[in-house]
Amino acid sequence: MLSGKTILLGITGGIASYKICELIRMYKRANANVQVVCTPNALNFVTKLTLQTLSKNNVAVEEFDIKNYNPEHISFADKADIMVIAPATANTISKIATGLADNLLTSIACAFTKSVIIAPAMNCNMWENPVIQENLRKLHYTILKPESGYLACGYLGKGRLCKIEKIFDKTVELLNYKPLTGKKIVITSGGTIEDIDPVRYISNYSSGKMGLALADTAKNLGADVTLITTKDVCKKYNVVKVKSASDMKNAVEKEFNNADCVIMAAAVADYRVKETASQKIKKTDEDEINITLVKNPDILKEISAKKQGQIVIGFCAESENLIENAKEKIAKKGCDYLIANDISRKDIGFSSDYNEVTILDKNGGMKKLERADKMTIAHQIFEEIYGKE
Ligand code: PMT
What we know:
Blueprint: E1 6-11, H1 20-29, E2 33-38, H2 48-55, H3 72-79, E3 82-88, H4 90-97, H5 104-111, E4 116-120, H6 124-128, H7 130-138, E5 142-143, E6 147-150, E7 156-160, H8 164-176, E8 184-189, E9 194-197, E10 200-202, H9 209-220, E11 224-229, E12 238-241, H10 245-256, E13 261-264, E14 271-273, E15 293-295, H11 299-305, E16 311-318, H12 322-333, E17 337-342, E18 354-361, E19 366-373, H13 374-386
Parallel strand pairs: 1-2, 1-3, 3-4, 4-5, 8-11, 8-13, 11-12, 13-16, 16-17
Antiparallel strand pairs: 6-7, 9-10, 14-15, 17-18, 18-19
The structure holds ligand PMT.
The site of ligand PMT has 26 residues, from helix 9, helix 11 and strand 16.
């Protein structure tokens, strides 16, 4: 089942570590290559010798125990097809959620770009601590929640590592679930920048997170991804950095003919400055200054008019009358789907890690996706679009 796949198995310092020995055996029986990475505390619960014997690989623990010229955390991250952290302690979850990389396991997690499964195990009061729950929400990973029962600390409650079979099944599912294989998907993200002069510009609050979540998800689902973005992004898929709406239009047009699907999550400026000053505009004695703006090309509308089998998807950012305006917009733009989000809310939309959207289709269909982190929303969008093919 797992031939040719490398599983990076992260083990952290919890009593449930002993159960992971059986998980390694299951992976090995399915022909996977298992690379175990432990936190130093994990070795208080299970020995290196046991893990090495079962995985038939060296067990990595120390960050600076470098055996070749490659930085180990990067080479481990590059070689593996999936990362599974089980058991995941409150400590390791919180470190990863805040980007801390103070040991080999957390450094690898920080550099890892493919699917990650986290199976937490801890005392029930730790599990219910709102800080831990908030940290888990920050992770765009597959979380296999702990189960209820008697815990090693004597408590009865939720915190016990989920069943090993569940971790195994989820690993197989994620490694083999590639419904977008063979599809070329182009995604735009970030706010465009329209120069006024060499030091000033017009832009908006788009962080690029929604587009990035779509691109990462498409990649995880097997697509050939091109992300056209105004932000600095370092990914293993094709990233094209652009600045203005006009740059974005050129980049989208270049990719369009070969694309199966284009998703315009970028916040494109509707207007640009008519004449960008070549020198910094000086302050004068006048109380007012006028800058003339001219309309930018509507990229979404233009590509929708040129469609030849591509699925074209726009986003719709509204601060009032969301659905009413979205219905009008999908008709005007001529795209196949329009994903409407309310940008007047602080808990979703611009810059937030979360979104809540309604997907409108060109035939008048509508589907609301409840508030969730942007990776989950991205996943649901692909399910909605490609589940119907
Ligand atoms: O980047 P984040 O911080 O994660 O925030 C995400 C988001 C709120 C920016 C995103 O979810 C979103 O709503 N993106 C679309 C923003 C926008 O420009 O909406 P609009 O309603 O003004 O435009 C409708 C569509 O036309 C969009 O797909 C836009 O990319 C496109 N457009 C707009 C103007 C233009 N000149 N050309 C275009 O192609």
